[in-house]
Amino acid sequence: xxxxxxxxxxxxxxxxxxxxxxxxxxxxxxxxxxxxxxxxxxxxxxxxxxxxxxxxxxxxxxxxxxxxxxxxxxxxxxxxxxxxxxxxxxxxxxxxxxxxxxxxxxxxxxxxxxxxxxxxxxxxxxxxxxxxxxxxxxxxxxxxxxxxxxxxxxxxxxxxxxxxxxxxxxxxxxxxxxxxxxxxxxxxxxxxxxxxxxxxxxxxxxxxxxxxxxxxxxxxxxxxxxxxxxxxxxxxxxxxxxxxxxxxxxxxxxxxxxxxxxxxxxxxxxxxxxxxxxxxxxxxxxxxxxxxxxxxxxxxxxxxxxxxxxxxxxxxxxxxxxxxxxxxxxxxxxxxxxxxxxxxxxxxxxx
Length: 351
What we know:
TIM Barrel; seven-stranded parallel sheet
């Protein structure tokens, strides 16, 4: 008989992570494991990366729903759990891992065999001007050919100067920016014009989600291609996805499976986008190595454009040791490498 259990752990950032939404120093993580009752030593492991303040399921009753998912593991169907996105992702991962032998290989392929690496962007968090400049230099020195900078917190003038400096010194580097909805519809056109002069590749979520008419106008008129990110959160039904893609008509969407309904839902997003000529890339959402591993393995098989936003594995001081390794602009997986999940104590029985 199939069984499942869950546990909670808090991870700590090596440095404060600053976005236009605020400062993060710690991250709450939930984990699930699934096993056959007659073989408890072999189990699948998944992460339910609830993102407080951003996940659509950040509401009362989360732990109770996670316990319910564990209790119903034998009948788990992703389509019924999309509204509880991070729970869906964790359960999908644990069950896929178990089916593949419980070796942390939910989506095995060339990536997990060490035959290919995933190119990733160099993520530059907000901070003081000096901190951001140092981080840019570190990423460029490490060989990254694509930088993603968070904007909207330290002042647009300083952020533009940092982008201009990177562009002047490294003309060939691809520059992406992520505003996390920092600008108003009135401010955004002026910002986009200034970014266009710097040859910025794309901007993620220039205005807050839910403003479809204004976002459509930006996508139509912006000199910088717009990528929808937070806009996708909480939209789980196929007809809603089609309506968003056709109403806003973005150039790109950014898929974060832990926020976008899980892997099954994200695959649907990718297919619907492709049918409408909308490109996409996969990005992690502050998962620990357990969740990042699953997202990376899924992305390696699902496709999308590169570089991907999967460079978050080194954010935490107390991450779970894994065979994942960031080598400059590449994320690699070492077959047979060591996983160490002994720090996870699954002493919480399902509800």
